[in-house]
Amino acid sequence: MISLQKDIKKIISTLKNVLYNKADYDKFDIINNSNISIEYLTSDGGFNYQIDFYKYVIELDVKYFSDIEKKHDIKKIEEELCELLGQILKDESEQISYVVIKPMIMNYVNWFFITDLYDKESFINDIKRLKEILHDTSIGKYRIENLNGEYIKTYNKVNEALTRLDLDNPNTFKNLWEAYNYWKVNLDDYAKRRVYFSNLYEELFKIIMKSDNIPNINMHLQYTGWSNINKIIADIKKDFVEANSTPQFNGIGAMCRNVYNCLADEVYKEEYHTDSNTPVPVGDKYKNKLMDYIAYKLNGSTNEDFRSYCKKTVDLADTLTHKMTATKQQAALTITSLISVVNIIEILENSSIIL
């Protein structure tokens, strides 16, 4: 028998695969880019009777949740997922009573709020400098009088940034004399002071460094009528979540190229998209096919910028595939650009003023 809480990974894996095989990519994306938990709840049924039930909680990054909320009926998705989980858990003694999709509650670091004070690197450097000053003065390496002015100036700037970011400041010492009064009473030897000031900003650093992570691709894909393209993009998003090395990022680049190749085969029509002065692309020349298609659909000087954007965007897949120092951020940018081009071509294909 399945235990909902102990076997949560199995349940999530099964749900994802069912959605994937049903080609329900919108819900697959939601499950693939979420933190999921199962909560056990009880309520009083009256007459000393206790009702037990389970809640399936799907937590999404705030921006991703907002994107989903704008485009879909979340209540309907919750009901459909609950029904599907009922099918998966058929005949099991424990059942999911309802599903909740909600924004993830956490410390979000929005660097836009402090652009006039810091970028991420300089913010981290100033925090490290405060820690260094506290450590060095507490063990007698430098005199308080020599560093107090620098400390106060840096502290005030960091504190203002933390206030704007709605983050707690773990350091309550507004000047070095306040720190001195604390360590003289509570930290009676150098070893204790080293440990205390080394760990002072540890939790804050975790929050800041987590802001570097890219948990999902938030850009929404209007899933097309091209099932093979839908499937490859779903695979790309799935692989991206687990990718953590350059070869894996290169592989994602190759998958993006495959999407462009499939897309070119779907939309390119030789009789429309070439002229007497243009050689017909052959074989695997997917970029030539796409560019001929886009040149036909977005012709004229007024569309020059759009044509240029599409070309440069398609080129990113090659860059990611061959880049020896590819990063997760670059993979995210390439996938987002890919989805942008697919959506653009979907718009072009469905426009009433073009073929």
Question: Can you describe what's shown?
Answer:
The protein is mostly helical and 355 residues long. It has three domains: 8-103, GMP Synthetase, Chain A, domain 3, CATH 3.30.300; 111-210; 227-350. Helices cover 60% and strands 8% of the residues. The protein has helices at residues 8-21, 25-32, 62-71, 74-88, 120-138, 144-164, 176-186, 190-199, 202-210, 227-242, 246-267, 270-273, 286-297, 304-322, 328-350; strands at residues 35-44, 50-60, 96-103. A three-stranded mixed beta sheet has the order 1-2-3. Strand 1 and strand 2 form a beta hairpin.
SSE layout:
Elements: H1 8-21, H2 25-32, E1 35-44, E2 50-60, H3 62-71, H4 74-88, E3 96-103, H5 120-138, H6 144-164, H7 176-186, H8 190-199, H9 202-210, H10 227-242, H11 246-267, H12 270-273, H13 286-297, H14 304-322, H15 328-350
Parallel strand pairs: 2-3
Antiparallel strand pairs: 1-2
Brief sketch in words of this structure:
The protein has helices at 8-21, 25-32, 62-71, 74-88, 120-138, 144-164, 176-186, 190-199, 202-210, 227-242, 246-267, 270-273, 286-297, 304-322, 328-350, and strands at residues 35-44, 50-60, 96-103. The chain is mainly alpha-helical.
Total number of domains: 3
Shape: flat
Q: What is the chain-wise order of helices and strands?
A: HHEEHHEHHHHHHHHHHH
- By secondary-structure content and strand pairing, the structural class works out as mainly alpha
Largest beta-sheet characterization: 3 strands, mixed
